[in-house]
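Good morning C.,

I know you're traveling, so I'll keep this short. The sequence:
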Amino acid sequence: MSNLQIRKLFFPYLWLIFIPVSIVMYLIHANPVLISVTAILAIIPVTNLIAVSTQDLSTKTGTIIGSLMNATFGNSIEFLISFFAIRAGLIDLVRASIIGSIIINLLLLIGLSMIFGGIKYKEQTFNRDSAGVSSSMLLIAVAGLVLPTIYKAITGKSEVIMSQAVSITLGITYLLSLFFILVTHRHLFVARREAREKITWGWRLAALILLLSVGAAGYESQILVNVLQPVIRTTSLSQDFIGLVIIAIITNVPEHMAAIRYGMRDNITLSLEIGMNSAIQIALFVAPILVLIAPLIGGGLTLAFPLFQMIALFLAVMIINYLSSDGLCNWLEGVQLVTVYIIIAIAFYFL
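The tokens, ready to paste straight into the viewer:
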């Protein structure tokens, strides 16, 4: 094995040193900003372990389940950070991270996949049937998130009960969509299996590494959330920007890595499925679960989001629906998606 191969094999995992570093700094009550930086640097290689182990496990399944696994375990970090943030009373940050994760999967993830795929391939095709179903589910997600917001704005009444009712409805809809995808209409969602995919660890070791990685991500998430309030005071960054941009980026690294890899292999269908499945899962499952468990952990999360966040979400869904309607994509469309995401991030920085 050459030195270059050795560096490629071990370099990503050298970053795991930040796990003990962040823990030590947290225990000795170091500067909150420094603790948050080391916690983020610890979460990033953990997300890489989640991505690789999920890829190994997906070789034992079909491509449909594989894309769902990428979305599910990638979103586990989002769920963990949101869970601890609700306990800490950072409700605005949780709402922003929910919207941010949806937007980043629809715009940045899919956009980067199209760009990197377009470097090698002039034009790529994808499954219009699966994209169409995902587009419809995204519109349902927008309706579920927008209506409680409008209800509160118009009536001035509490949206708690309505949010819980809508959350249950969205959760049931998501489970029914899985039954549609995996059972009754499975043939519509068949994507090409990667013949060149290599198994890194084997499924047993991959399952163990996945469990350990999620556990490590949970502990690092708790450390990160515990120091966020002093970080917000020190840096003057808003909860909205931290949630919508910073938290959304670090919690969606696994999906980005997998989607970009598939895009570069001319399998953009899987890239779109990972991005859209992840966004749908956050909107129809993760967010409703967080709303329902919030009262149990001392929080008051509802589906009433700030108007500016709703506008950004609506724009992201409309744009991805339009670009995914013809079954064709190229690098310029990827640039357009990334551009819209950057504009939204800039807007929230100055908000």
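Safe travels,
E.
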